[in-house]
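Lecture 7, part B: from sequences to assemblies.

Below are the input chains for today's worked example.
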Amino acid sequence: MPLVNDLGLRLDGRKYDELRPIKIEVGTLEKADGSAYIEWGKNRILVAVYGPREVHPRHLALPDKSLFRCRYHMAPFSTEERKNPAPSRREVELSKVIREAVEPAIFTELFPRTGIDVFIEVLQSDGGTRCAGITATSLALADAGVPLRDLVVACAAGKASGQIVMDLSDIEDQKGEADVPVAISPRTGEVTLLQMDGILSGEEYERALNLAIQGCKMVHELQKEALRTKYSVAQAEEEELEKAEEEEATQK
Amino acid sequence: MTASYGVAMSIKRKRIDELLVQEKRLDGRGLLDYRMIKAEHGLIGKANGSALVSIGNTKVMVGVKIETGTPFPDTPNEGVLAVNAELVPLASPSFEPGPPNEDSIELARVVDRGIRESKALDTAKLCILPGKKAFIVFVDIYVLDHDGNLFDTSALAAILALSTAKMKQFEVSNGEVVFKEDWVSLPVRKHPIEVTMAKIGDRLVVDPSLEEESAVDAEVILAIDDEGNVCATQKTKIGTLTVKDIVDSVKIAQTKADELRAKVLGGLSQ
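Predicted structure of the full complex, as structure tokens:
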């Protein structure tokens, strides 16, 4: 069965340059210093940030900057077959590339001898978990008040049934010809994460890269919207509270 | 993966930058020159295939062992490719004994991806009994001396070891594998080559040495198949790349991959 039909529509009805539905919430968790929750297609991912805080074990602390650590982990029930909860080699690799994708945006030099820890928990996976995880990680860091140069954002593109398409679904990732996840720093357009597997000619590679970046920019708008939603509500509530206090004071 | 910090590092970085402006490097190479490459194969008689590849002072040995096992449930008609990498403590003062860390896992997985995604190994020919029995091809990467650019060296050694590996001819009778006396080659149909492009300042160089890797902003590893297609990519290190860097890297990698393939695999009778 082709992944893209004669009308150029994909199995879930999307055009080549359309994203799956995305919903983002900032500040979902109570205890974490910062958190975010993202629904991207059927992906359900929760991200928590702790820090800047004391580093454990202590000898890992760096004299000139904060130690930034990332753990990408999939819940045992997040996949079709139960996933062993022990970190797989894939999760170790993804933790590394996600860390390297996000760290360029953090002012780690402002917090020497401290640690900033990111925990990404995939509750349900649907293809493109690293991109969704990175997108939510930036928001959780912002929510924690960690000074950032930029909100790193990620989106994949790839090739399915001969077509270059944006934001691969699970089935397009598995049955398609190639997958190119990309993260960018949207202010400068620089690429902070780039991976690829499959087979692409040089020309297709360039097209997929540009389409993924186009997707990143679309997701970035949703990212900003999610931050605004959280903090404009918080601001409104605070203003209301102040107003009420003022009224109370004048009544007295 | 380096032991130099602070002042020494920034002096070295400055020297590297100054030279790059003149299109030169610490060891006198041009930006797109590899160090001297040496490749040997068949050194380990007990392995089905083996290769020792050095790029400059970096030395990597790869051994291929073939065993029988169960195919994966989602690919019941195919044999299995398993790539593992050991950063052996004798290879560098920064390597420690113990379970694989993220660097060795990344090395193994990126080499694996190049071989797997290019479909270099015809795994369908390695199935013995669908769903029950298949050959498992273990590719073990052994880093012996680390002087930079482990990805390219390991990928070269892996494809050379696979291309020269031999297994006993076999027959299946009544669900049992019966091995015969004569040896056959593994079904290797593609020869993916990995090319690491390192970005230092605003320059792209190939084959970064360990000294250079300590100054590198970002690296991108590109696996290129025999037709010049890209079949795997991995960006590493905390730095960024522009779209132009990436597009240029692909073009350079395509040319370099052909050169390396001819140099290391060209002499083998296909």
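Note for the exam: DSSP finds four helices and nine strands in chain A. Keep this in mind when comparing with the next example.
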